[in-house]
Write a structure and sequence with these properties.
- This protein is an all-alpha fold and 74 residues long.
- The protein is elongated.
- The mean pLDDT is 92.
- The protein is built from 2 helices and no strands.
- The longest helix is centred in the last third of the chain and has 34 residues.
Length: 74
């Protein structure tokens, strides 16, 4: 059974977040391959964790709003 209405919005939103997170991980991998030393690797990893933590917090908040909207009867 295909997604309809709000459920489709939830799926599309979740998929877009997953794609963004995978892209961020690949971007980090490219930077790590080009890192000059261990210190740079650690700095890149630290920045990635901070950025992703913030992104996931925002994504969770927004996805919750989309789910709530989808669950609200019209």
């Amino acid at each position: 059974m295909p997604f309809t209405g709000g459920a489709k919005d939830v799926g599309v939103t979740a998929l877009s977040y997953a794609e963004a997170n995978v892209k961020a991980a690949f971007d980090l991998a490219q930077k790590l391959v080009q890192a000059k030393d261990v210190q740079e690797v650690l700095q890149l990893q630290s920045e990635f964790v901070k950025t992703q933590f913030s992104a996931i917090q925002e994504q969770t908040k927004e996805l919750g709003a989309v789910i709530q909207k989808a669950a609200t009867p019209k």
